[in-house]
Amino acid sequence: MTLKNDLLLRAARGEKTERTPVWLMRQAGRILAEYRAVREKAGSFIGLATTPELAAEVTIQPVDILGVDAAIIFSDILVIPEAMGLPYEMVEKRGPWFPNPVQTQADVERLKVSDAETDLGYVLEAIRITKRNLNNRVPLIGFAGAPWTIFAYMIEGSGSKTFSKAKRMLYTDPQLSHALLQKITDSTIAYLKGQIIAGADLIQIFDSWAGILSPEQYRTFSLPYLKQICVAIQGVPKTVFAKDAWFAREEIAQLECDTIGLDWTMDPIESRQLVGPNKTLQGNLDPCVLYADYQTIEKEVKNMLKAFGPQRHIANLGHGVYPDTDPDKVRCFIETVKEYSH
Ligand SMILES: Cc1c2[nH]c(c1CCC(=O)O)Cc1[nH]c(c(CCC(=O)O)c1C)Cc1[nH]c(c(CCC(=O)O)c1C)Cc1[nH]c(c(C)c1CCC(=O)O)C2
After folding, report:
1. How far apart are CA 165 and CA 157, in angstroms?
2. 6 near 45, Cβ under 8 Å?
3. Among 5, 65, 11, which residue's Cα sits nearest to residue 279?
4. Which of 62, 106, 235, 240 lies 20 to 30 Å from 170, alpha-carbon distance?
5. Is the pTM value of this prediction over 0.80?
6. Residue 248: is its pLDDT beyond 90?
């Protein structure tokens, strides 16, 4: 049962590693031709995500093709609203869309706290198949959206530059906002526990829309729910990635998590000072660096590794890899981390 490559887990736990582990946010499903071939077979994103054998296949592709030190289960953060009773669609080239976004108290009351096995069994089955087929080569990362980020999609009904409908609800009806955030949190805790039982070796919480809240709103509407999740989830290392929440790094460092994800606007040295020595940092190359030539990529990756130092660092991008990135440039990123951090 022991992993052949457990660099990611050791780095997360603060144990010594002989080199820096590396993986990429959104490594499954955005850049590989091999992914698009399987997606074609499944017919749609949701078809693929709900077919465990195929989801497992595209989860393992980046391990085989790119040489990353971890797999991340192929799914989406929006499976939680769906499981709670709010179906979504993935509109080609536009992203997620909820035909019936949450608007009223009755809408919130109608939603249920989802159960991992009965409502999200297809994800758990994909995790079990992935674990079997990975054959302990690398750890498998499970994940969920942070309650605030899920709330933002459920109220807004789609992506948005401002998420002003969702933010309006925070200001006009804080009580209803908290009621919905709590339902999402309870669903998420059950889901993450299910993922761990199914075999996830580490979990990451994506708070992708953290940065559009004020520090005060973040303290009121996001951090308390992240705290509940971090306290409830035990047994595997936990990563919190709050995009653009540079203002909340010290408070995030107080959460019961092991790793803090940084985006490229957050300076590694300053971040280390803010969070102290007892957390691992993950990140944070600007995904746009991968549009540059190989020499520039190598230089930027080396600068990043120097700034983080050799221990308590998991190399990654500062956000998900962009869909039009050349896989050879991604390989250059990965190879440079492996060689230079050794
Ligand atoms: C905000 C968010 C979402 N989803 C996710 C986040 C948090 C991370 C982040 O901030 O980027 C997380 C996510 N979504 C997906 C994964 C799979 C695992 C991985 O690749 O790391 C993960 C970890 C698959 C997906 N999720 C989605 C796709 C593309 C759908 C397709 O293949 O047609 C994939 C592979 C669709 C999706 N899903 C979402 C959006 C905005 C979109 C449309 C834009 C896009 O392509 O990313 C919501």
Report:
1. 9
2. no
3. 11
4. 240
5. yes
6. yes
